[in-house]
Predict the 3D structure of the following.
Amino acid sequence: MNKKAHYKKQLSYFEKEFSGISQYKLAAWQKSYIQRIKEYLLDNDFKNKTLLDIGAGSGYVAVELAKYGINVIACDMSEQAIENLKKYKSQLSLSNLKFLVCKAEDIPLADNSVDYIVANALLEHIPNEKKAIYKWRKVLRKEGKMLITVPLSLKYVWPFLWLINILYDKRLGHLRRYDLNSLKEKFRLKVLKVFYTGHLLKVFGVIFSESIGIHRFDEFLEKQDRKKQDIQYGANNISVIFQNDK
């Protein structure tokens, strides 16, 4: 693989996407993700701690967690993504939100410097996956926790959705998919929680909502999807919370 060409294509795709964001708002699925972070990742004394949002993208994790009171460092290789976040920081008076423009495997932070890491829909994009994981583990403090969300291996996805997912992976630049065993092998950290998202009802519901431009059922779809978060087969994504117990 030509890593430079891959990153150039990725940066072009996401810079275009982020430049089209005119205002900050939360979709139903983003609210669900934030709810899970609060419920499963953060400790009771989180306000004295630091969370690193790797591949901050549209910025909703960084913004919502900063609003919640934790110290947040948001990093992304897209300067447009960071510019959007700087605007949100000013608009929402988030003095506890800081920024880094960098690749996910080259984060300029000291070892043992953050208490939490969130990497949502990111690892599958990174050519040097091993280097990225190594760096993430290094910056995470002992007893710190890390939430990873990635596409689920196709063998657990409904077969009639394989082609759609393959085309989606190609369009977004996904290099690989994962299951729990592969993630455990790669991260070699203690697993605290696993949940699966993007089950069939939600997939069809989202397609329908997008096609007609009406999102009144989005909250309902998220609630139904959450009921199946412990079911692997038929999901499209896997999220794992690891703890650095070494």
User: Anything to note?
Assistant: The chain has a mean pLDDT of 95. The radius of gyration is 17 Å.
